[in-house]
Write a structure and sequence with these properties.
The chain has one helix and three strands. The chain has one domain. Strand 2 and strand 3 form a beta hairpin. By secondary structure, the protein is α+β, with helices and mostly antiparallel strands. It has a three-stranded antiparallel beta sheet with strand order 1-2-3. The longest helix has 22 residues, at 50-71.
Amino acid sequence: MSPRDPYCHIEAFLEPDQTEQTADGIRQLVTVMMTAGTSEIQTAACQLTAGQARDLAFQLLVEAEHAERRTGHGEAGR
Protein backbone atom coordinates (compact mmCIF):
# COMPACT_ATOMS: atom_id res chain seq x y z
CA MET A 1 0.00 0.00 0.00
CA SER A 2 1.10 3.56 -0.59
CA PRO A 3 0.51 6.78 1.37
CA ARG A 4 -2.33 7.56 -1.06
CA ASP A 5 -3.97 4.23 -0.14
CA PRO A 6 -3.71 4.10 3.65
CA TYR A 7 -5.60 0.85 4.21
CA CYS A 8 -3.22 -1.85 5.38
CA HIS A 9 -5.54 -4.72 6.32
CA ILE A 10 -8.44 -6.35 4.50
CA GLU A 11 -10.67 -9.17 5.67
CA ALA A 12 -13.86 -10.89 4.61
CA PHE A 13 -16.36 -12.58 6.90
CA LEU A 14 -20.01 -13.49 7.36
CA GLU A 15 -22.28 -11.64 9.75
CA PRO A 16 -25.49 -13.56 10.47
CA ASP A 17 -27.61 -10.39 10.36
CA GLN A 18 -26.24 -9.20 6.98
CA THR A 19 -28.74 -10.73 4.57
CA GLU A 20 -30.97 -9.55 1.77
CA GLN A 21 -34.40 -10.66 0.71
CA THR A 22 -34.69 -12.02 -2.83
CA ALA A 23 -37.53 -13.57 -4.80
CA ASP A 24 -36.07 -16.99 -3.90
CA GLY A 25 -35.72 -16.28 -0.18
CA ILE A 26 -33.02 -14.83 2.02
CA ARG A 27 -29.44 -14.52 0.75
CA GLN A 28 -26.43 -14.28 3.08
CA LEU A 29 -24.06 -11.43 2.27
CA VAL A 30 -20.27 -11.41 2.63
CA THR A 31 -18.82 -8.44 4.51
CA VAL A 32 -15.50 -7.05 3.26
CA MET A 33 -13.71 -4.62 5.56
CA MET A 34 -10.56 -2.56 5.03
CA THR A 35 -8.86 -0.92 7.99
CA ALA A 36 -5.91 1.40 8.42
CA GLY A 37 -3.13 1.10 10.94
CA THR A 38 -4.27 4.29 12.66
CA SER A 39 -7.53 5.75 13.91
CA GLU A 40 -7.11 8.74 11.56
CA ILE A 41 -8.71 6.84 8.66
CA GLN A 42 -12.25 5.47 8.91
CA THR A 43 -12.79 1.78 8.33
CA ALA A 44 -14.31 1.02 4.93
CA ALA A 45 -16.77 -1.85 4.61
CA CYS A 46 -19.27 -3.22 2.13
CA GLN A 47 -21.53 -6.21 1.76
CA LEU A 48 -21.23 -8.41 -1.33
CA THR A 49 -23.38 -11.19 -2.66
CA ALA A 50 -21.71 -14.60 -2.89
CA GLY A 51 -21.31 -14.09 -6.65
CA GLN A 52 -19.71 -10.67 -6.21
CA ALA A 53 -17.37 -12.04 -3.54
CA ARG A 54 -16.40 -14.93 -5.82
CA ASP A 55 -15.74 -12.52 -8.73
CA LEU A 56 -13.59 -10.31 -6.48
CA ALA A 57 -11.63 -13.31 -5.22
CA PHE A 58 -10.99 -14.48 -8.77
CA GLN A 59 -9.85 -11.00 -9.86
CA LEU A 60 -7.48 -10.81 -6.88
CA LEU A 61 -5.97 -14.17 -7.86
CA VAL A 62 -5.54 -13.02 -11.48
CA GLU A 63 -3.82 -9.80 -10.39
CA ALA A 64 -1.57 -11.65 -7.92
CA GLU A 65 -0.44 -14.05 -10.66
CA HIS A 66 0.17 -11.13 -13.02
CA ALA A 67 2.21 -9.29 -10.37
CA GLU A 68 4.34 -12.38 -9.73
CA ARG A 69 5.00 -12.86 -13.45
CA ARG A 70 5.96 -9.19 -13.89
CA THR A 71 8.48 -9.23 -11.08
CA GLY A 72 9.56 -12.84 -11.18
CA HIS A 73 8.92 -13.12 -7.45
CA GLY A 74 6.47 -15.56 -5.97
CA GLU A 75 5.47 -15.90 -2.37
CA ALA A 76 7.76 -18.27 -0.51
CA GLY A 77 6.01 -21.32 0.87
CA ARG A 78 2.92 -21.14 -1.31
